[in-house]
Amino acid sequence: MTTEKTPDASNYVRIASGSKNDAAPEKFSYENDSTPVSATSQNNSTADLVVCKHNWNSTWSSDSFSHWHECSICKGKGDIAAHTYDQQVKTKAYEKSSATCLSGTTYYMSCVCGAKGADTFEIGDKDPDNHSGILNNDWKSNDTNHWKEYACCGAHAEEAAHTPGPAATEDAPQLCTVCSYELAPALEHTHVWGAWISNGDGTHTRTCAKDGSHTETNACSGGIATCQSSAVCAVCNTAYGAKDMTNHTGGTEVRGSVEATTSTEGYTGDTYCKGCDTKLADGKTIPKKDSGSSGGSSTGGSSSGGTSGGTGSGSSGGNTTPSTSVTVPVSGEEKTIRVDSTVSSTTATIEDIDLSKLNTVIGNDVKTGVVTIDFSVLEKQIDTPVFFLHSLIFLTPYLSLSAFFPS
Known about the structure:
The structure is a single chain. The chain is mainly β. It is 3% helix and 36% strand. It has helices at 358-362, 390-395, and strands at 13-19, 37-41, 46-51, 56-62, 66-71, 77-82, 85-87, 95-97, 105-111, 116-123, 140-141, 145-149, 156-161, 174-175, 182-184, 197-198, 203-207, 215-219, 231-232, 239-240, 252-255, 266-267, 270-273, 279-281, 285-286, 324-329, 336-344, 347-353, 369-374, 384-387, 399-404. Strands 7, 8, 9 and 10 form a four-stranded antiparallel sheet that branches. A four-stranded mixed sheet has the order 26-27-28-30, with no helix packed on it. A three-stranded antiparallel sheet has the order 1-3-2, with no helix packed on it.
């Protein structure tokens, strides 16, 4: 094929025009010179066959599917290719999102022609100040500080030291006034106990004045029960328990005493507790008086048995033992008088009675009565007591003596 005009650096020669699908430039040969024949698209359905000394632009032209170089003379397309998004270009044009606290900057992948793809890549450092999530409004705390946290990365915000509230009491702990963190626990309850009150069953209870639900109950204790009354608790000062019928108080008295005569035996009398009227001890029989000797009661200053009157010692002969103290119970009283005696064979000689204490023992108001001497403590068989008691008669003329011998 030849043409009248020939292409140059600024013009091209069109040979034919037709369907884009029928264009086949390789079937034509330009005989004017060796310039090749090429097809240029006019639209989506037609194309021109041209002879052009192409001047391809260095920049890419593109559509949604492909890219090419365009001739500046005939506007033809060269190097046509489908897009391939394999380029990582870090410019603002391809930036999808800036760096955040969780990731670096994100860009779209691109084609060599500059077309932007849908896929992305991440590159660069994170930005700890650019949070992708919200700041939670609830406070987080430890022993010293409180803060809020971002939902995205958990970073702290508004962090500060605790602000102590009122000091802890028994009713409430100490809290931070900002975040309500417990800085100190509530104080342990200290009781303010009231008085002990008897429960009437041998126990007593006290109640805390600060909290009536706090009580303490213990068994009553202390005090001494007697035959007349129960013990009084040393704590609640209330009587409790049973009486102690073995602990007699209120004194004793002798009932039913009978003086021996020469014709009848006597009886020392039974001993009773005056507090509870309980008999404590049976009395003993007193032998008849011997009308022919001084071995019984004596109201005189001398007696038979070989001993002369007076306050000195005497004996019926034989060896004697050292002075022995015996006890003289006074009828009607729980008191004693000291007596010194010597014993020889079966004869006891009363050497001295401590008269200085007699009035104290029997009481100044006692005018008559019987003072009984119990010889059983000597653990000897005594047949004949010898008395030197003129001073006793002198001081207490209305008291008589009787003797109780060991069996």
